Every structure is written in structure tokens, then in C-alpha cells.
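Following up on my earlier thread - several people asked me to post the actual chain instead of describing it. Fair enough. Here it is, all 437 residues.
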Amino acid sequence: MALRPEVYSRDEHPISRNSIDPDALKILYRLMRHGHKAYLVGGGVRDLLLNRKPKDFDIATDATPRQIKELFRNSRIIGRRFKLIHVFFRGNKIVEVSTFRDVSEEVAEPQEGESPEELIITRDNTYGTEVTDAMRRDITINGLFYDAGTFSIIDYVGGMRDIRDRVVRIIGDPDVRFPEDPVRLMRICRYAAKSGFNIDAACYASIQRNAELIRNSATMRVFEEFKKDFASGFALQTLRLLAETGLLAHLIPELAENDAALLNEESDFAKTLAHSDEMVLDGEPRSPTVVLALISLFTRCPILDGLPEQFRDREDIAEHVASGFRALAVPRKEREKIEALLQAWHMLLTSGDDRSQIRQLDRREVLDEFELLIHLLYGKGPESDLLADLLEQGSERGRPDSGYHEEESRGFHQNRGPRRRRGGRGRGGQRHRPPQQ
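Reply from S.P.:
Thanks for posting it. Predicted structure:
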């Protein structure tokens, strides 16, 4: 494949070496000193061009995994089908280095014991060139290479033009690339939501034509994609794009009902999820459990004030959670955590229940998620005060049978540090509480 790239010199782009992780630069320069091609690639280049701080600095090279391993003693080869190198640095930092891959064609099926990250494209297992490595990537704005030797951007796929025009476009023919790996349908929506770019018109039309193909993807891969969406800080906008393109009806059909009314700006669910996204963008990590719990609640009843009366008892909650998310491979432990959150929420708001049972969550990892759930739903309302008082009572009494320690009565919990009361204000300084209907 002999494509001539567009090369953008240092004065034609904003990336400075001062913005690149110094350990990533060390890897690039060592590979180049030993005669190898090596580039910063993927989302790291995209984010630097958009003046954002990259989450990761990934590197691609023509060196084989064994050659990379010989150059970096602080590294480890990972992966079953396609070998990658993780180079380790202080502070638990990992820089991922991969050998240029060949163009992909077929999608792998999950094998027993494999993690979702290992479910890669079947014919993605042979080494290639920088050209094939660029062409195999999903979207143009992720197919750019930064050359630390010349300080230039190498563009085989038109990604620089699309960044300038604020367009998300799949590399190649979308009607070919989507059937190769239908998960790309979801990724296009995520990238558009995170970047604020528009989806290319031809790509958008292809997503609508091929939406049903998402059913062909391994449900575990689909769930892993949703976990990224929920933790991105752009969960609401991603769900809206999934609904607009017709994908949501195949993924979370209960959210797509009534023309995805739950995602409308005035819905209690949309306001709650928007507040969650604001908190993520302000630096608070988010587990998928809380977002799934919110979806489970509001798909039962769209109005917050009417939610508690919609569930008869614990068994009703258990049945509701079990019947949801049929198109996703939500792990059993994840469903159990969602069920525990909803049952604790029901106990808190239903005077007939024994609220003291909520304190038993303190022994489990779901306690912090429960506090977050109540904060997202009610802000600084009386429900949050009730929960805080309840937990404070539990700390004062102590629970020797649950491993309770005296220092916890001062608000400290083992391995978690001091408990802090969550604020009730979003990024705009307004209290978050969906209006009463």
C-alpha cells in the first residue's frame, strides 16, 4: 500500500514536546536511536491538537515486541492474539507500545477466559507498516502520527482536515468498515459526543442503515464500550446520539421508548445524568453501576417524585433489575450491586422499611456508590440529610460484628479515608434537584 501522506511541519500545528509525557519521549527517542521508526499515535495526538490533556500517550513502531522488550527492561509483553508492550514507570505509569499492524478484515469471537480488550479483529495479527497501521484505525482524527524526530504530523487519512472542519469520519467506506466490526458504530457516537464534532453525513447515514449490525457484536464487548461511555463525562450526549442514529433501540431499548423521551432536556433522568457528567468532568471518577442504577430507576417511572411508590418490595426490585439490560452482558456481580443500590434507596425513602439495614452497606463497596446515587437524585435535599444522619448513627453505635473500629465514629472508614459530604452544586453553581412535576 503506497500512499503518500500529508506532512505538517512544526509551524503548521500546535503540538509542542513540552506537552508530551517525558517518559513517552524517552521511549520514542530510544527506539529511533536504535534505527526504528516510532511515532506518538491515536487519541494522544488528537487531544494535543485540540489543546486537551491526553489520558494516554500510545506509541507505534516498526520494532517487533521482542525488539522492544530488549530495549526496555522495565517492560512486559501482553496480549494473546496481537502482542503489545507495556513499559512501566514510577507512579504506576504505563506507556503502551505496539508494532505497526496490518489492515484488518474480520472480527474475532471471544474465547473462554479472554478479557474484552483481547477481543480484537481476527486478521489484526500480522505486522504491517505505518501506512497499514494508520488505515486500520477507526476514525480519521485518531489516525494521525506525531514524529518526535522532525516535530511533524504525518497524516495518511485526512485527519488534520477533519479536525479543522470538526468532523468525525470513519476511515474508508463506512458500509464496509461497520460490518467488519459493528462496535465501531458505537465508537463514532462516543467520539462525536466527546469532541463536540459533527458526524460526517455519509458516515451518519451508514450508521442508520447498519444499526442492526450491533446485535452481531459480542455482548461483553458492547458492555465494555458502555462502561467507557458512562465514565467519559459525556454519557448523556452519547446516549442521545445513539438514540438519533437508531442504535439505542438495539442496545438499551427501554431507554429508546417513546422517542427516547427520557433523554429530553426536561426529563428528570436527563437532568440527573447531566449532573453526573458534570461531576466526572470536574474530576470525580464514575463507575457504570451508578449510571445503570439511574437507568433502571427511571425506566420504571420517568418522574422522580413518583419513583418510590413504583416498587412494592425487595422482590419487585430484584425482578425489575433482572429483567433489564437484556441486550447487554451486565455481569452478575454488577446486577447484584445495582439491586443492592435500589433496595437501599427504597429503604431510605419508605418509612415502613427498616432503614437500619442501610448501614450494612458500610461493609461493602457499594456504600460510596449509594451516597453518590442519593446525591445525584436529591442534591442537598432532605433525603441526603436523612442518609447522612443514618450513617452517623451507625458510626456512633459501632458494629463489632462487622469489623467496626472506634476511629470510624469520627467519620473515618477503613481504606477509604475520611468520609466527606457531597456538595449539592453542579459546575454552574446551581443546586441540582429535578423540578417537581
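The chain has three domains: 1-165, 172-217, 257-418. That should answer part of your original question.
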